[in-house]
């Protein structure tokens, strides 16, 4: 006795899913309940500098890729994932294999009882632009403060000069007025 099952539809769905996960600008990270990374797509490999084989053979933990600068925030995100099976999008700083840092916009969802998936968009260029903008703003504010101080100093000097000139000029005006009144 045997059975024959047509799996054409299932294979088509699997191929569609593989094409979706190979998108070039969205990193995909699969992880288990112990937060070990079990697979990554090519986009995340480019972003992080790790190959899929390095990640799966070395049992790299999620926290090794995105060390928590704020443990309370990290714990809150983990609790949110445990409670709802999802996380809201959040900006995280990652560490590449070579030790350099980069920024990603990350969200996660549970795909089974034993596995979750995170989606990552590289936002390093935007974060660098924000940092540069903040530096330029700080320089502009310092320059404005310096200009305001220079203007205040100029006003003070002009006030002193005007006061100091007014006294001798007043004496000259009075003497000239007296001379004009002479017959």
What do you see in this structure?
- This protein is α+β, with helices and mostly antiparallel strands.
- The protein has helices spanning about 10-20, 40-50, 50-60, 60-65, 70-85, 125-180, and strands at about 25-30, 35-40, 90-95, 100-110, 115-120.
- Strands 2-1-5-4-3 form a 5-stranded antiparallel beta sheet.
- The mean pLDDT is about 85.
Mean pLDDT: 84
Q: Provide the low-confidence segments as ranges.
A: none
Q: Provide the spatial order of strands within the biggest beta sheet.
A: 2-1-5-4-3
Q: What helical percentage do the residues reach?
A: 55-70%
Task: Record keyword descriptors for this entry.
alpha+beta, 183 residues, single chain, 6 helices, five-stranded antiparallel beta sheet
């Amino acid at each position: 006795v045997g059975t024959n099952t047509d799996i054409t539809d299932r294979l088509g769905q699997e191929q569609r899913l593989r094409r979706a996960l190979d998108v070039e600008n969205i990193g995909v990270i699969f992880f288990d309940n112990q937060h070990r990374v079990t697979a990554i797509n090519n986009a995340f490999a480019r972003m992080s500098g790790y190959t899929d084989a390095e990640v799966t053979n070395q049992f790299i933990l999620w926290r090794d890729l995105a060390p928590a600068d704020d443990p309370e925030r990290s714990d809150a995100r983990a609790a949110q994932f445990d409670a709802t099976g999802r996380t809201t999008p959040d900006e995280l700083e990652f560490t590449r294999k070579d030790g350099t840092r980069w920024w990603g916009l990350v969200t996660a969802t549970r795909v089974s009882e034993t596995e979750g998936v995170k989606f990552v968009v590289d936002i390093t260029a935007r974060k660098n632009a924000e940092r540069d903008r903040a530096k330029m703003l700080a320089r502009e504010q310092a320059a404005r403060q310096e200009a305001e101080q220079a203007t205040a100093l100029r006003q003070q000097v002009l006030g002193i000069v005007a006061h100091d000139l007014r006294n001798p000029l007043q004496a000259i005006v009075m003497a000239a007025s007296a001379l004009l009144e002479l017959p």
